[in-house]
Predict the structure.
Amino acid sequence: MRLNRTNLLLKAGTALSGLVLASGASAAPAKSKQPAAKPKAAPASKPAAPAAAPNAAITEIEKRGGSVQPIAQNDDQLDVSYHLQGAAVNDAALVPVKALKKVVSLHLGGTSVTDAGLANIKGMTDLVKLHLENTKVTDKGLEQLKGLSNLQYLNLYGTAVTDAGLEQLKGLTKLKNLYVWQTKVTAAGVAKLKQALPTVDIVSGWETAPAATAAAAPK
């Protein structure tokens, strides 16, 4: 009888120990999860450095005897001129001009620029004034001027341009002054252009030679 009671007490103690262990195990705190690391913000991109192309272009133009000047103080519009540089200025001199923005005046008078060189100014839609007097430009070169939608002044004095070349100018609706004295243009060609551009003032030199000479002089 005593043996049975002892066995019962041992079994009860074993069971109680198991409960305590189980309770302790279940009460163990769960490991806290570490907060997810926030992704690092990408470093702010630095503003792009100003393009070196305009400065290099200006340097090249000046090296060839040309000049690049703002048309007025605090104005970013440019006047580019190879005036008085003579035959030494050829088509290659127009390559750096192409790299400039907001060129509103370009003086190529008296240079050796040809039709091929004018391809460099084809997209210069800011251009308002263009001197081509006494150059080697012909009708073919005037095809490059079709897209110069803001052109107001064009001097072709002393070139080999003909009536066919004037046909290329019909789309220049802002053109105000055109000089064709001592070219191969005829009265018929002038009249036809006037029909397309009634407000343009065309100086042909047939009126009075002295007046035409003064008008055709570079301004």
User: Anything to note?
Assistant: The chain has one domain: 63-216. The mean pLDDT is 82. The domain at 63-216 is CATH 3.80.10.10 (Leucine-rich repeat, LRR (right-handed beta-alpha superhelix)). The chain is about 30% helix and 10% strand.
